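Researcher: We're teaching a course module on how sequence relates to structure. For the next exercise, students receive a sequence and then see the predicted structure as tokens, so they can try to spot secondary structure elements on their own. Here is the exercise chain.
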Amino acid sequence: MRATTQFPEATKRERIAVNTKELQAMLGCGRKTAVDIGEQAGAKIQIGRRVLWNPIVVKEYIAQISL
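Model: And here is the predicted structure for the students to work with:
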């Protein structure tokens, strides 16, 4: 499998999609919990075998369930 290109830290704030590891870091939890939250939020973006997550949708979902 080919390695993906990594971009500088400055652009991480502006991303419209993150991978699972970045979703884990964003939520501060393990892989299973991050995937569960992402799926419940409806933030999953699947392109072929690659899975990305929409962080804006995840943030809105967390804000909604935390009320």
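Model: If you want an answer key for the exercise: The beta strands are 44-47, 50-53. The chain has one domain: 16-65.
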